[in-house]
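Continuing the batch. This is chain 6 of the set; chains 1 through 5 are on the previous pages. Same settings as before, nothing changed between runs. Recording input and output for traceability.
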Amino acid sequence: MVVFGWVVKKNDTSKNFLEQLSGEIVFLAEDDAGYHSVCRVAADGGSKKILYRYELKEIGVFNPKWSANGLEVSFTSLDRKTGELTKITVDKEGNVLSREPGNNDDTTSHYTFEEDITVEKGTIYVLEEDGSRREVYSTWAYSDHWGPSYIRWGPDKKFIIFQANSVLGRDEIAVIDLESLESAVVANGRHPDWK
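Output for chain 6:
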């Protein structure tokens, strides 16, 4: 495939790769009107469920994140009229447990949420124990995406999950196996977190 003059390799989504993934991912899925709802999906890409659909009084919802115990999901809502941020927490079925003033965002960078993962010019690096950086994903080498963001560790630090921002206007949730460096798209969406 040629995009803006670069030759890029399109990833093959391997069924075997996806089948080895376990756990659940929360993320934002866009509806036809361009608004985002909080969704939960099995890490292998199956069993998608909407946990929270934005309300008309909201501009949108952002940054869903699993709780430490994996039973709740919190995210930020932005009020359309007042501009106020609200942290909303729901259970795994989408029942609202709490609403409190504030922001769910725990970082100033939306490239990576991890201290031992860095991003530079569309390339993801993992910091090794000896202080060196190991390249695990390069945007132009692997896909038609212009850059990864919202990068987090997957379970047991064997995988990395991230938002792949497409030059074609499509955002996807992608996973990288750190051993084989194979990657696959799990779902269309933004702001992933995996437990």
